[in-house]
Structure formats: C-alpha cells, structure tokens
UniProtKB/TrEMBL annotation:
PANTHER family attached to this UniProt entry: CATALASE (PTHR11465), CATALASE-2 (PTHR11465:SF23)
Task of the protein: Decomposes hydrogen peroxide into water and oxygen; serves to protect cells from the toxic effects of hydrogen peroxide.
This enzyme's EC code(s): 1.11.1.6
Family under the similarity heading: Belongs to the catalase family.
Residue ranges of domain Catalase core in the record: 20-413
UniProt cofactor(s): heme
Coiled coil stretches, renumbered: none
InterPro entries, sorted: Catalase (IPR018028), Catalase_clade1/3 (IPR024711), Catalase_core (IPR011614), Catalase_haem_BS (IPR002226), Catalase_immune_responsive (IPR010582), Catalase_sf (IPR020835)
Region described as Disordered: spans on this chain: 1-40
Name assigned to this protein: Catalase
Claim: Transmembrane helix is one of the keywords in the record: no
Keyword ATP-binding annotated: no
Length: 526
C-alpha cells in the first residue's frame, strides 16, 4: 500500500489478533451460523453471518474492459536533470525532471491486453506499461505499451479493434477470422501486427521488455514554449522474449509467470531498472516527413530524432494487497503535471476521456481517495460527496462552508497561471483521416531489420493464425503483406496456399490512400 493511507482512520481493535467483524465487534464463533437448535432453521438477525457473506458476495469489482490481468509494484524515478545533453529546463518545467538525483516515487502496472483477469501472462498480446509518478505537483500517469506503436490511429475505432481481438460474443472464443477480418480492412495495423507476431510479441517477463508512451505528448518550458515528445523505457535487464513453443510450455504450468517473476525478483532484492529517454520534435506538423508526428502507428526514427536520457526507474517494493493496489489503481492519459501537455494525437484525445470515465464506473466516483491513487501533493477541491466518500479535499484554514469559488470568505483561489504558447491551429470541422498515412513503410523497415530467425518466427506465427481464416480474409492479408515486402507476403502466402498470382489485380480498399511507392509496388504485383 502507499504510505498515504491514514492509520488514524483504521480500526484499532485487532492488535491482539482477535477476529472481529467489520463493525469492530469480537467474533467468538466463526464456525457456525446462528440456528434454532443444531439442525434448526437459521435466524435473520444473524448479523455476523450476513455481514460476512454479503461482503463476500461483493468481493469483485468489474475487471478492466482491457488490460484486465496485470500486476503492480512500486519504485522511484531518479532524474539526470538533463534531457540528453541539455538541461531539462530547456524543454520542460515539470519539476520531476529538473535536478540531478531528484527522486520521485512511483507505482507501475504491467499487464496483458485482451485476456480476462485470470488469463495467461505468456499470451501473444501487447503488454501494458503504465507508470504513476507521485510528483510534488500531483500525479503524472504515463500509460503505454511494450511495442512502441498501436493498431489504429483514431480513438473512434478502439471499440472495434478490441471487439475483434476479444472472444466472439456468441462462442466466447478468440477467433483468428474475426481478428484478421478487422485487421485486413485496417491497413494501418500492419506495422503493429508485424511487431506482435514477431518474437517480441511474447515478452519472457515483465522485467525483460521495453516500455513506450506510444502517443505523442508535449513538453512546456518556463517561457511557455512547447515541443512534441515521445517517451521510451529501456530495461537494464535486457530484452528477452518467448517463442510460441516456449510460451506454450510456460503457460501449461503457470498462467501467472510474469507477475511471479516480478514479485520474486523484488522480494529477493533483485530490483529491475529501466533507463528513461525522450525523443523531441519541434511543435508543428512537419510537412517534410512522409508520416504524421501525431500518428501512433508510427515510430520516430532514432537517427533523425535521437534518444535523450532523462533518468532511471528502479522497482523496489511489492504490493501488500493485490485487490487494493492492483485492481483499484486507476491510471489515465489525462493525468499530466505542469510542464507536460497533450498533443492533438487523435488517439490520445480519445483515451483521455475513456480512462477516467471507465474508472468512475469500475472503481467508483471517489477512486482518487483510495491510497494507491491519492496524489502525494496537497489536494484542495470543491468537489465532495458521492458513493464511498470519506473525507473532503480541504486546504488548511479553508472555511468548510465555502465549497464554491470565488468567495471572499477563506475559500480556495485559483493557482497562478503559467505561460503556454503552443502554435495556433486553424481548420474546418471535419471527420477525416490523417493525410500522410504511409501504412506500409515502417512495417517494411521492421521486417528488413529483423534477423533471419525472427522473420521465420513471424511468418510461422502469422501462418498459424491465418490458416484458420476464410479465403477472402487470407487473400487481403497476403495482399497487404506483399505491399509491405515481397518476401514477407510471398512466404506467408506460401504457408497458407495463396500465391502472388492469386492476389495480383486486387484493388486497394475503398478509401485507401497509397503513396507513389505503394502504387509502383501495386503495379509490380500486376
Ligand atoms: C487500459 C481505453 C489505447 C494502454 C485501458 C482501459 C481503457 C482503455 C478503458 C481500462 C482502464 C481501467 O479500467 O482502469 C483505451 C482507449 C484507447 C486505448 C479508448 C484508444 C483510443 C491504448 C494505447 C495504449 C494503451 C494506444 C498503449 C500506449 C493501456 C494500458 C492500460 C489500458 C497500459 C492498463 C492501465 C492499468 O494498468 O491500469 N485502456 N485505450 N491503451 N490501456 Fe488503453
């Protein structure tokens, strides 16, 4: 538990380990309910039994709609005071980055995405990498994954991509045909699929994987100047993955292999560490690039946008209670501190609504009063009440009758405004896709930089699932993979009995935008 829990609020009567009920009444018989005679009917006034069983009946809250299986631990972030070779203050006024050696406590939750709360941690699935920094200016949540990119670039498509990956609503089985029915109509997913079906798709453990913020954020400095930024975490333990065959063996024995590994390492004092880096870009739309900086299906090439070291994260403490700290932790992309900001990345904007919306439903409207979610900074709001509220966020000396602002009677006042000068944006209200889509180029780059055994693994993994799909879906997938790379498409096609000739002549999808390079590849296909 975080040390913000208020001991004064806890019942004190259990010091001698006498069992009590939740009203603090000692329980002298925990073996039998109250009945008339030893075989007789039970009585309704049996408060102790009713309290125990009705609490048990409510022991679960809804699991997360995605990332249901995960594991939390705690640690700290130590800043270098720099962003690469420059003082951190050049780009951001966020306090946690400013001084060399400054430490900020944090909680992290690693997770899988698609499976339910008790599903396998050795599944082929992206991994969640969600960090809650308890900074002096309030919480900062960085909710990312281990693969650097995502399947889609507009939040309105999120329920669709997740429905395709989750079990069929009729059979409740995860069906390859549903997954690839959606993906084959979604060319921007080819980059993420190429990562996911490569050996990187099953990390060996949570300790041995990278973390990425994925979406594009901003940093803001003291003058209010903004830059675009991407976040990276590199494990000092190295990156390690499992092949499908290795994963089968692991999950045959233990569905919770990754959380066990993490918990055990921390218990043994073998504290995992990650170096944190950022990539930085000037804050405009970069017409010189043939992809959009606000597109989360793209990485920013490191040769053009170098990694700049900002600090190190060390994980050094386990949870004390899985439910309180793992099931009730609530992170979201809206949770930023001064000096960090949103970009107009359309995924990020949609995510920012979704997280706190689901948490109000999943945990309750006062989820921020729970110890694991409470900021370490002072919280002073005029919001109170609601289910399970147990204190008010009052500032010292605040008049308790003044829960409105402005007031001349010792109420809360606004904080000082900080400068923020992002570029001006103009445009017509529209519903449209980013213009620079270039859906295949980075998947191609990824395919080309893989080692031969990684390509073999990728082809085998895709072939395995695509062989369970219907012909139309198979053909469209092979067509996309040929658009990515001849060798990639040809080899997956061979694995499922589809030749280049079978898909030659297929037209692009309705509304699909091809680059000149894509067009010449299409012509070559015939
Ligand atoms: C969890 C929505 C995209 C990473 C969740 C949850 C929702 C959600 C509703 C459950 C949160 C909870 O119950 O506390 C969305 C939407 C997205 C999106 C609407 C797209 C528009 C992404 C992307 C990433 C990501 C692109 C990776 C960069 C995560 C992680 C969690 C999560 C790591 C688990 C957080 C935890 O451990 O508590 N997402 N998500 N999501 N999402 Fe997303």
């Amino acid at each position: 538990m975080t040390d913000r829990s208020d001991d004064a609020m806890r019942p004190a009567g259990t010091a001698d380990r006498v069992l009590t009920n939740r009203q603090g009444h000692p329980v002298s018989n925990n073996q039998s309910q109250r009945t008339v005679g030893s075989r007789g009917p039970a009585t309704l006034e049996n408060y102790q039994f009713l309290e125990k069983i009705s609490h048990f009946d409510r022991e679960r809250i809804p699991e997360r709609v995605v990332h249901a299986r995960g594991f939390v631990c705690y640690g700290e972030f130590e800043a270098t005071g720099m962003i690469g070779d420059e003082p951190a203050s050049t780009y951001t006024r966020a306090k946690l980055f400013q001084d060399k050696g400054k430490k900020t406590p944090l909680a992290i939750r690693f997770s899988t995405v698609i499976g339910g709360r008790d599903s396998s941690e050795a599944a082929r699935d992206p991994r969640g990498f969600a960090v809650k920094f308890y900074t002096e200016d309030g919480n900062w949540d960085l909710v990312g994954n281990n693969l650097a990119v995502f399947f889609i670039r507009d939040a309105i498509k999120f329920p669709d991509v997740i429905h395709s990956l989750k079990p069929d609503p009729v059979t409740f089985r995860q069906e390859p045909n549903r997954i690839f029915d959606f993906m084959s109509q979604t060319p921007e997913s080819m980059h993420m699929l190429t990562h996911l079906f490569s050996p990187r798709g099953i990390p060996a453990s949570y300790r041995h994987m990278e973390g990425f913020g994925v979406n594009t954020y901003k940093m803001v400095n003291a003058q209010g100047d903004t830059v675009l930024v991407k976040y990276h975490f590199h494990p000092r333990q190295g990156v390690a993955s499992l092949t499908a065959a290795e994963a089968e063996k692991v999950q045959g024995k233990d569905l919770g292999s990754a959380s066990k590994d993490l918990f055990t390492a921390i218990e043994m004092g073998n504290f995992p560490q990650w170096d944190m880096y950022v990539q930085i870009m000037e804050d405009h739309d970069h017409p010189e690039l043939d992809w959009d900086p606000l597109d989360d299906t793209k990485i920013w090439p490191e040769k053009d946008f170098p990694l700049r070291h900002v600090g190190t994260m060390t994980l050094n403490r386990n949870v004390e209670d899985f439910f309180n700290e793992n099931e009730q932790i609530a992170m979201g992309t809206g949770v930023l501190v001064d000096g960090l900001d949103f970009s107009d990345d359309k995924m990020l904007v949609g995510r920012t609504f979704s997280y706190s919306d689901t948490q109000r439903y999943r945990v309750g409207p006062n989820y921020l009063q729970l110890p694991v979610n409470q900021p370490r900074a002072a919280v002073s709001t005029n919001q109170s009440g609601g289910q399970m509220s147990y204190y008010r966020d009052m500032a010292p000396g605040q008049n308790p009758s003044v829960n409105y602002e402005p007031s001349i009677h010792n109420g809360l006042r606004e904080a000082e405004r900080q400068p923020n000068n992002p570029p001006e944006i103009t445009g017509r209200l529209t519903r449209s896709v980013l213009e620079r889509r270039n859906d295949y180029v980075q998947a191609r780059g990824r395919y080309c930089t893989m080692m031969e055994w990684e390509r073999d693994d990728l082809v085998a993994n895709l072939t395995d699932l695509l062989s369970q799909c219907e012909r139309d879906v198979q053909e469209r997938m092979v067509w996309h993979l040929l658009m990515v790379h001849d060798d990639y498409g040809t080899r997956v096609g061979q694995g499922i009995g589809i030749s280049v000739e079978d898909v030659a002549g297929m037209a692009p999808l309705d509304g699909q935008v091809l680059t000149d390079d894509d067009k010449s590849r299409l012509e070559k296909l015939g």
